[in-house]
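User: Hey, quick favor. My workstation is busy. Could you predict this chain's structure for me?
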Amino acid sequence: MRTAPLTTVTDSAARSGSTGPGSAALAPARWAPGPVGKLFGSEIRRIPTTRRVVALTFNAAWDETGVAEALAVLRGRREPATFFLTGRFAERHPGAVRAMAAEQGIANHSYSHRQFGDLTTRQAADEVLRADRAIRRASGATPLPFFRFPYSATTPRRIADVNALGYADIEFTADTNGYLGTAGGMTVGKAVDRALADLTPGEIIQMHVGTPEGHGPALDVQALPRLIDALHARGYRITDLRSLAGAAAHA
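Assistant: No problem, here it is.
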């Protein structure tokens, strides 16, 4: 399912300062804040809820290993997830991006996965907006107004910068570390255990598709069926991050 487009902010509204701190140095915001504006001003590491729900997310910055398998598992289980894509991934693997966007939410993980603490405000904006253009071209869809910092390296200044562009900063509660693979000492069981170690209402779980070295299995994708079963066994439901943006929920 493609993400529903959100209301565009006019250039005059952006110049008026309504897009947030530091907006004068940035391009106009792409969306009116709407529901997502309530998430501005801080990093989001869990969904603000007391309900027993979790959100599944995948980062995609390397190759497309595991993308088709992850989508098949989610489709078969009728579960939602959100994929945070780099612009370079979108340029290199447009077919995978189209497949993700056709079934799940897609969002922005920067263009080239640089450390944002080393960038100027303009360079940071370029990383975000260049990724947005690449993801739109590859997917033919409107990405969610969500941004996840490379390495989860957030600062108040950089969060204000991405908020000024119309994005909420969506990080994670638990990282499976599955991207380390077996060479890094990880197993399917360890990845699942890390996701469940401090399970809490509103938890956002970070996983990865692809492999850093371009070879070997995508361990997080292998762990996905077991993780879904374990979450359900503990009385948790998997929720769709698209609801935070007021976009159409996963069917």
